[in-house]
């Protein structure tokens, strides 16, 4: 059954008392001349960060650092990096030129096999290969590569030919992704996040989606699919609907904590409906006693925490791990408004991982520890 995130939930957010992340300084770039954003660790099937060569492998979106930081979205390529403690090592672009069937590579998740022999990547292909004008079509693909580790040397075999996992059906999920083409207006079929349900061992992916049976422009949803015994993915109805409320529930993912399920997503103030309440840029979520629901907004509103009011755009794309660590990237730091001038935006854009945060959870209540 689909659960609903509603205007009444968001209207109950009290900006005077809501939890806010600490102020973030603009970080130093990890790779000079390269912007990095939306990133995720290679995980074990239980969702924990996999220990590889004494640290963690991460996959990040990357692009050359142009004058306008927003230009990165049209050039995004997946990049592999290794972190040991606070030291990052660049392992280069994940795929060879022309490998992906699109013009850009967007977010997903990556899972290490139980024998540590290979990594399976679930990711978003945006656009089509060779297109002259960038389109906003989004497709979900999976591919895998053998992993070998000798000391601190990490190697991945050539990735297998990407296989399309799911196709929007036009019944539950919108097929046309364009939505006007501006940032915040495009529709969603992206960000696949793998989840193994400990209750029955079934494999799922959750993804950002848009509702097909909606009369509202603001028709964001969290979609889901389950892997069938033959290896195919079966598309299921949306897990969460924000119909009439919000256009983008981005990078949705699920963890289990103390026997409860917690579903998290990121969203921004600018993608809430014009004629309703708007929440801040922040991490949002719902909780349930089972994957099937019903799902209840955490803290009664859905808001876990927001960026601080002095810097409401300082971080984005939060990713929660089962140990309640929260990872994100530094976005527009040290400024209360997004600059119209690209040069000024560049001076404030972080383009690197933000410091980790940590959550505390007690039932339906959640706060920053």
From TrEMBL:
Substrate binds at residues 37, 107. The record marks 191 as: Transition state stabilizer. GO terms for molecular function: hydrolase activity; levansucrase activity. GO terms for biological process: carbohydrate utilization. InterPro entries: Glyco_hydro_68, Glyco_hydro_beta-prop_sf. The keyword S-adenosyl-L-methionine does not apply. Pfam families: Glyco_hydro_68. Keywords: Hydrolase. Belongs to the glycosyl hydrolase 68 family. This is Glycoside hydrolase family 68 protein.
